[in-house]
Each structure stands twice: as C-alpha cells, then as structure tokens.
Amino acid sequence: MVCWMADAPLRAGSRYSLKHTTRSVRAMVTDVHHRLDVEELGQPRDADTLRLNEIGLVTLKTTEPIFVDDYRRNRSTGSFVLIDEVTHQTVAAGMIRV
After folding, report:
1. Coil vs helix vs strand at 18
2. Which of 11, 30, 37, 86 is 20 to 30 A removed from 48 (C-alpha atoms)?
3. Residue 61's domain spans which residues?
C-alpha cells in the first residue's frame, strides 16, 4: 500500500529508488491494482494510476532482494519510501502487506 505524494501521477512502469530501513535499491512499479476511496470508507476502486494524496495497492519489483515483514508485525521493516531518482524528492510512503 502506498500513499502517493507527488504532483505527477504514479503509473505502472515507473522507476524509483526504494528506501527500506537503512538500504536503498532501485524499484519499478509493475502494477497498480486499485486505489482506496476514502469518501466511501476505504472501498477499493479500480485504478491504473494514483494521483496526489491517493492511497492504493501496487506491486513493486526491486533490483535486489530486501528482507521485509508485514507492517502489522513490524513497522520498521514493514515500511518504505519511494524517491524520485531525478529530483531526489520523496514521492510515496508505503507499508508492506504480505
């Protein structure tokens, strides 16, 4: 799950730097599954992009393995941020659900 924090929308195929604990790896968004409609109490809605302040479920593929836990079990190893490789701005905060 990610909360998108950039003006430009998140699309499948986009590449970012993923910072997880003290480690950074390159990552690509392979799929945007749905977004949560916060006005409808978090009901999932089909989506192929996420816009500013939207929350959604995405699949990421990393260039190197990272060791993660479910966010509900361990917040430190179950969270990450996505960073734009060009501007170095944080564009998303995420929590891992396994």
Report:
1. strand
2. 86
3. 2-95
